[in-house]
Amino acid sequence: MTNPSDGTSTPAHRYTPELANRIEGEWQNYWLDKGTFNAPNPVGDLAPEDGHTLPEDKLFVQDMFPYPSGAGLHVGHPLGYIATDVFARYNRMLGKNVLHTLGYDSFGLPAEQYAIQTGTHPRTTTMANIENMRHQLGALGLGHDPRRSVATTDPEFYRWTQWIFLQIFNSWFDEELQRARPIAELYPLLESGELAPRDGSDYNSLAAAEKQQVVDGFRLVYRSNSTVNWCPGLGTVLANEEVTADGRSERGNFPVFRKNLSQWMMRITAYSDRLIDDLELLDWPEKVKSMQRNWIGRSRGAEVDFTCEGETITVFTTRPDTLFGVTYMVLAPEHPLVDALVASGSGSFEGVDPHWTNDRNDPASAVAAYRAGIAAKSDLERQENKDKTGVFLGAYATNPVNGEKIPVFIADYVLTGYGTGAIMAVPAHDERDYEFAKVFGLPIREVVAGGNIAEAAFTDSGTAVNSANDQGLDINGLAKSEAVAATIEWLDSRHLGRGTIQYKLRDWLFARQRYWGEPFPIVYDESGVAHALPESMLPVELPEVEDYKPVSFDPEDADSEPSPPLAKAREWVEVELDLGDGVKKYTRDTNVMPQWAGSSWYQLRYIDPTNSEQFCNIDNERYWTGPRPDVHGPNDPGGVDLYVGGVEHAVLHLLYSRFWHKVLFDLGYVTSSEPYRRLYNQGYIQAFAYTDSRGVYVPAESVEEKDGRFYFDGKEVNQEYGKMGKSLKNAVAPDDICENYGADTLRVYEMSMGPLDTSRPWATKDVVGAQRFLQRLWRLIVDEDSGSILTTDLPLSDEDNKALHRTVAGVREDYANLRVNTVVAKLIEYVNYLTKTYPGEVPAAAVTPLLVMVSPIAPHIAEELWKRLGNGDTITYEPFPTFDEKWLRDDEIELPVQINGKVRSRITVAADASQEEIIDAALADGKVIANTEGRNIVKKIVVPGRMVNLVVK
Asked: How far apart are alpha carbons 722 and 242 in whole angstroms?
């Protein structure tokens, strides 16, 4: 065969990209036809047909749910997928039953926006994207069980998403037992008086509709008038994570406004303590645990009641010991008491400091103008804004510890989503309060000694000063903890406050004004009361509509009202149903669930994907994710054995998943109390990108380097380093690498680039190194000219056994600990040893275990060489080689000999030689004799296994 690039002849049986592609296609078809990676279940459709017992030793490996983007994959995407495939393949060779598959998180705003732009139905584009992604991933030889793959857009999948929603909807959280219970168990507790309505009313004296309102108030899913992120330009409400720090939509860069809307909420806050405390049970990176703890934000302190114009303003503070330092109060602009306080206050700014009025003549107009001015700010922007602004409400509150009248303001640095939406401002000891007080000329009173409040707020613990009243509270001289405890006791005794725990975590806003999402299994009667649909009516499928665009508005129109796309499908919205009390007219909910819904439980559907009677049979769940105290310790919560994905999902997805799973656990549907026992965050493959003088990205592959500078079309461009992506024009498609080098080469290269948990730069020119390693492996076994096999039955020498067994020992340990880059390094070293030692034929006993060790990383070439060695079955389930300890020990060791601190010679001695024998060998060495002749040896030191040190004079 002639090489077209240089006219040279290529041996007919060389491992070339063309041969690699042919081999890889054949083996991928073989695995699919034979169901090589199909993992059996204990019961159901996927149970073994012959009824044989499954191995107790199992492994459930899962990748984070990918979104099927229309842009397709670049080489950075498969990094984690290849790593989990390597880990799964290794564990199959250890005899474990391994579940590994991949599905698609295919609902969401990107698909809908793309469909709007192109005029194509979201389902059409989503299915096309899934097929493209399946093709790209299939080319990598991933050992997935294809029977278990799901997509959140499959009606059979979102039927169960809707079913789980109804289980949460039909549940309430028992504070005493700290777990969810069916709503049916709530009625007798209310009727008996054992549990009182939240508003303190007499349940049995209420009308039927009022009783239903009481019950709905306990549900884990409820409707609430909440402050949301409304984006008129997109025509939908956005989650916090979909809003940039600048208060604009992540998609489209439209302004986002804070708006009160009636929305579905999930009471995730009921699980705050369990979500924090159970982190201790999980094998997760400490960084991720810390992020979740901070997001939930549990803090202990006190709720304190301030009276103001006949109203009670309750604030939460972790420092009630600073109450004597309160000189003003601040409410969030959206606080429900703001309008009432404005209406009942002085109604005038007469005599008020002009700084406080926002250049308005009365509180009502000042508040309205201020609210309008901050409507487009995100929570993050409001919290981080250093320029303190606010408006006086014309009202004064009474400080409960000293009776002092203090002014009440609204300001954007206080949020409704944290604490009570109101703060007691202690400017001497809080940085933001200090900045606000300086701008508005408010008093700054020291109540904690230790700082210089003339220059800055003092926020350390310190000791209390200026903190006593004539009603029995005197905390002067007390340290923080004692002062806090004494203040809480005083407040509680006078019914002015109470010790409590607060959380930053807010309930989950669970609705979107979109088309492309899971419909709610809820209908409303003519009185607007929500009714859950029976299971027999699931799934509620999305209607086929011609216009699935949301009603969008002028991007600056903050007063616009959401009109979801589904509201246009009147035949679907308006229905007649019999929900058990006769046929009646109902309307469907026109919102859809957020994209987080499907990804909150998908691991359970992977377990039982064909079950039409249950979302997941509990016997199958128990086998795959049930607690294993004998393996993982007495407090094992169960869950997926290994979950791999990016740290960007550390909080929201994982928090939502844990919440859903805990509800299902409480209700008895699963045996595991956590969804993911072990979490591993892989790093990223990054790349250089280049921009021209206008800041426009240019194709990275066309950039040339000259003398440390970079040029595109002859003009110098700027180099930057970061993520890989289509928009940066530096994406490298895995399809191209597979075509030009082979999938095994891509797999070996990505696994060898560095530790899996760190990011690393992509360099296409370095891929050839991985290719050369595989070519050397091929040449060990196959003659490039004739294609004949080069193995013999020769026994292994002692040196061969040392090299083999040390490789096996190291590779086993590295595979088990996901150190795949060092696996590659050890295999390269062993292949190089064999290549040097056996330039002709190589012992089969040396290469047979080598192929097994290689196969998790480069499965196609390993399968092919395994077959050519005369083996009939796939290498997939071949037992992984073991090692003998005796070959890991050296018979002899080399020790450097130092004379007065300088190495003068090296000696070889038995590994178990005594110190006397080592000294004798050193003194008999010719170089040592030459360097000590005529001198006195005053010290003879042996550092075991390290060196000999002689001190001479």
From this structure: 22
Token pair belonging to 454:
């003339």
549 and 451 together in one domain: no
Note whether 557 and 234 are within 8 A (CB): no
**Alpha-carbon distance 308 to 873, whole Å?**
82
Q: Report how far residue 132's alpha carbon sits from residue 126's, in angstroms, rounded to the nearest whole number.
A: 10
Are 191 and 211 in the same domain?
yes
Closest C-alpha among 143, 376, 395, 179 to residue 274: 179
Question: Please, what is the Cα angle at 291 between 284 and 518, to 5 degrees?
Answer: 85
Which of 595, 628, 656 is where one domain is finished? 595
Amino acid of residue 925: D
Alpha-carbon dihedral angle through residues 703, 706, 710, 714, given to the nearest 10 degrees: -70
Structural tokens at position 373: 């001015």
Establish whether the linkage from the previous residue to 285 is cis, with ω within 30° of 0: no
The domain in which residue 246 lies consists of: 163-292+508-595
Render pLDDT for 174-208 as a digit per residue (tens, 0 to 9): 999 999 999 999 999 999 999 999 888 999 999 99
Dihedral pair phi/psi, residue 468, rounded to 5°: -150, 150
Looking at 595, 630, 645, which one is the last position of a domain?
595
If we measure between CA atoms, which residue out of 158, 66, 155, 77 comes closest to residue 103? 66
Q: How far apart are CA 33 and CA 768, in angstroms?
A: 32
Distance (Å, rounded) from C-alpha 244 to C-alpha 151? 28
How is 640-709 classified by DSSP, letter by letter? BSEEEE-GGGTTHHHHHHHHHHHHHHHTTS-S-SSSBSBEEE---EEEEEEE-TTS-EE-GGG-EEETTE
Task: Report residue 865: phi and psi, to 5°.
Answer: -70, -35
Distances in whole angstroms, Cα of residue 925 to Cα of each of 861, 896, 913, 952 = 50, 11, 16, 16
**Interval 864-923: pLDDT, tens:** 999 999 999 999 999 999 999 999 987 788 899 999 989 999 999 888 889 999 999 999
- The pair of structure tokens assigned to 831 is 């292949």
pTM of the model: 0.84
Count how many domains the chain has: 3
Provide the pLDDT for residue 882.
97
243 DSSP β-pair partners: 249
What CATH number should be reported for the domain holding residue 419? 3.90.740.10
